[in-house]
Amino acid sequence: MEIDKSYDGREHSLIKHELLGSYLEKLLYIVGGSGEKEITYVDCFSGPWADDSDDLHGTSIAISLDIIKRVREGLAAKNNNIYDIKFRAVYVEENKSRFRKLKGYLEGNCPSFIEHHELSGDYSDLQDDILNVCGKGFAFFFVDPKGWKDVGVPRLSKLLRRSRSEFLITFMYDFMNRFLKLEDLRDPVQSMLGKVDQEFLSELQNKTPKEREDAVVRRYREHLKSVFGGEANKKSWTYHATVLNKDKNRTVYHMVYLTRHPKGIVVFSRESHQVAIFQHRVRYEKQNRITGQMPLFVPEDDDFQGEVAANIEDVKTYWLDHLSSAPAAYGQAELADWLEETGWLEYDFQRAFNELRKEGQVENLDDKSNQRTKRFVHFDKNERLRKLA
Ligand SMILES: C[S@@+](CC[C@H](N)C(=O)[O-])C[C@H]1O[C@@H](n2cnc3c(N)ncnc32)[C@H](O)[C@@H]1O
Question: Which of 13, 33, 229, 303 is deepest in the core (most CB within 10 A)?
């Protein structure tokens, strides 16, 4: 991933856009390759925002159109039948002058095969219109507000209840955290987190800042999930990626992801992993620029793994707690549950399984060669695993 200089000073937007772009690309390949006939991208807070270039390349508008175009070309190269997929992009913007810019941009730049809709106004008031244009096919919603109050669960609820949908929502933790205790902001806080009583606030008081952040974002995820529900009474999953302040080691926002498909969370967490490494690279290079120091070496992605990996002993213990001595199949649904529960990465689970395997504590009965170097468990193939006595 390249570091685009036009993001100087707003590196957190760069990280957000990398995650949006890289996940959207994977998602569209999966959904487009599955026989789906209608795919809609919805940008509920589209802007254009903080980018004065003519091509708006540093905005979610240009990024989403570019990804749709690229995926369609990629799918077409493999399969001729994709030309009957209808691609749609819906952009919602409340600010009048930004809306005019959006409209002009789409008229001049949206590829003709993408049916584009631009809606002017508050996304929450426009939920029925958005749902109407989405039709019945698959839809991905990007919900990226400026502040924290705009993505309260009641304001999003009609969209959340739509079936065949996924969401990526920017949760402005740092802003909200400052107001958590204020009595006069209790209603907006509850719209985000559900019922906030004295007991919850006291529990937060006793936590470290990191634990508190985790508890708050997980409350938001649970609240979203309570409305999002599962497809045909099945389950749904949430995950979040953390975007850090460009200079300080502090969270600016979380990118909260919601899906009703276990593969969704597996793929999203893989993309989050790559983007987390990229985030550390951006911070490292920026720090070098500020101090004027020439780096002693050019770091590889592996040099940043330590910054993003979970404690391997914790992951090993988790594996041992979940395996039994009788062989059992472990698939994407199990991995999705574990990723959601722990917030770790598939990389952590693979690495820990390999250590346990080398220590003779676990076995993959479907890995006949026992010589794999990377993916020690193929969760997509429901491999049989067991704990050795
Ligand atoms: C953070 S910016 C969006 C950035 C854009 N998603 C991107 O990544 O390039 C938020 C945008 O949403 C618009 N906005 C604010 N409140 C809104 C609302 N209630 N409904 C729709 N748009 C809104 C703002 O005018 C602004 O352009």
Answer: 13
The residues of the chain scoring below 70 in pLDDT are 1-2, 80, 233, 294-297
260 and 153 both lie in a single domain: yes
Q: Where in the sequence is the domain holding 354, given as residue range(s)?
A: 308-387
Gap between the Cα atoms of 310 and 322, Å rounded? 17
C-alpha of residue 91 to centroid of ligand 1, in Å: 10
251: left (phi over 0), alpha (psi -120 to 50) or beta: beta
Q: For a pocket test of ligand 1, which of 49, 119, 122, 140 has the largest count of ligand atoms closer than 8 A to its C-beta?
A: 49
The secondary structure of residue 54, as a DSSP letter, is: T
pLDDT, residue 231, reads: 75
Same domain, 74 and 133: yes
pLDDT at 165: 97
Residue 159 in tokens = 């969209």
Q: State pTM to two decimals.
A: 0.95
Q: Which atom of ligand 1 is nearest to the CA of 16?
A: 8
| Of 133, 326, 340, residue with least CA distance to 218 | 340
